[in-house]
């Protein structure tokens, strides 16, 4: 199955309105650093929480792109307009894109 994928260089520095970032990493990864305004549903919970997935166009992220590719394949089959971020949060952070943390410390990818 083809998984719609975008690279970081295809995204503008400010994400367009109507695009929701869906982070499918585990809670421990999320708290250390994530994209501000992202919606968090761990991949392991996605099937049970389909009703929590926004109807917007989705940019799905994980650490490097593997879990998010699985999520995009499944979400696409459910009728969502979803795209995988190739390189995930690792490339996001390396590019200096803004992140926030829940730990009280500077955000980083774990």
UniProtKB/TrEMBL annotation:
InterPro entries: GlpE_sulfurtransferase, Rhodanese-like_dom, Rhodanese-like_dom_sf. PROSITE patterns: RHODANESE_3. SUPFAM superfamilies: Rhodanese/Cell cycle control phosphatase. CDD domains: RHOD. It comes from the Bacteria. Residues 15-101 form the Rhodanese domain. Transmembrane segments: none annotated. Pfam families: Rhodanese. This is Rhodanese-like domain-containing protein. The lineage of its organism: Bacteria, Bacillati, Actinomycetota, Actinomycetes, Propionibacteriales.
């Amino acid at each position: 199955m083809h998984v719609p994928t975008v690279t970081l260089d295809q995204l503008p520095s400010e994400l367009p309105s109507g695009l929701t970032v869906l982070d499918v990493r585990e809670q421990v990864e999320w708290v250390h650093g994530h994209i501000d305004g992202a919606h968090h549903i761990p991949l392991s919970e996605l099937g049970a929480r389909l009703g929590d997935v926004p109807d917007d166009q989705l940019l799905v992220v994980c650490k490097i792109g593997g879990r998010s590719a699985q999520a995009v394949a499944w979400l696409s089959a459910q009728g969502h307009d979803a795209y995988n971020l190739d390189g995930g949060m690792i490339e996001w952070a390396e590019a200096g894109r803004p992140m926030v943390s829940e730990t009280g410390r500077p955000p980083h990818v774990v």
